[in-house]
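Apologies for my clumsy wording, but are you able to produce some protein sequence, whichever is easiest, and the tokens describing how it folds?
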Amino acid sequence: MNESPLAGKTAVVTGAGRGIGKSIALTFARTGADLAICARSKLEIAETGSAVELLGRRCHASSVDLANPEQVEAFCHAVLREFGGVDILVNNAGAYIERGAFADSDPELWWRTVEVNLRGPYLLTRKLIEAIRPGGKIINLTSGKGFSAGADSTAYHVSKAALNMMTEGLANELWPRQIDVNSLVPGPTATLTNAGPSQKCSPEAILAAGRDALPKGLPAWERVKHPDEVADLALQLASYPVGGPTGQIFSLARRPL
């Protein structure tokens, strides 16, 4: 078994300051990749950057608000200046800001959710697309909520549904360049609790809560996953040889989407 399947590769991972994005960045570094990472929190992204470098890999870490086109462009320029090209792009960063009913929603928060979850990946991918090398991979982190209407949080549902469609469109466009584009649906993951994103817990603490940590309404056979499990699936997608799957949805959810 090749323990360094990403050796010689450069990977870009957004939202890498914590949770799933951090796990993906560290997993990629352990398996040979150099990293360019970003997140809004300066402290968290710096900590991830230091952890990547301790693994012996090069790392460019920046504080970036994906809803800000100027910051996205500056980050992309810095990535290309330092690494020259990109082999793997993981659009992981996301926001779950407006959670209320549509009629009562805050228009600014509703649209900011879409900007982070959809416009951010669009801008980043658009800026880097010509620099993605043949055999490259684009992995978009989406959600089961992108496949069901739900009753609230329409901005999140809309943004993730659109991101799934962006995956399919890009897959159709980029296969002649041998670039694969797939969606990854983590399912319930030990990054947030039912109390909301303001209550921070370690993945281990959330997992220890067992079924109490599951969002309401999920079937009994569903379970909360550790972020490292999502990172393992991302590594599998990033490691496929040329001619692997593209335009597909890979999910860790234990239920139909």
About this structure: The first helix runs from residue 19 to 30. The radius of gyration is 17 Å.
